[in-house]
Known about the structure:
Layout: E1 24-32, H1 37-44, H2 46-52, E2 57-64, E3 71-78, H3 81-88, H4 91-103, E4 104-114
Antiparallel strand pairs: 1-3, 1-4, 2-3
Helix pairs in contact: 1-4
Amino acid sequence: MTKTIGSHGPLSPQGYSRIPQGAYSIVAEVRAKPGKESELRTATLPLIERVRSDPKNLVYFLQEDRESPGHFIFYEIFANQADFEAHNAMPYVKDWFAKLPELADGGVKVMKMQILAGPK
């Protein structure tokens, strides 16, 4: 299933109804070691398609700082913590984490959030 942004995609105003109040949201940050920006980007880009194809993933964005190449922010939403933990147990995620000691400066910083519903 492809997730799109637009007037009728999952992230359109109608698509937001797919995201339950209290959903498990992750904002994570990783920075490349100096000189490893391109290698970390190359290792990380395949995650987009893999994670978005996971039926338990509701939203996934990978972002890179325009002013600081190699500085990545991940935004992910899963219905609950168990779905997120199942995601982190996937072999391709474990493989990515295994590359970080060589590529990343200080590992991944993670904020575990919850989705709040807006006023009705």
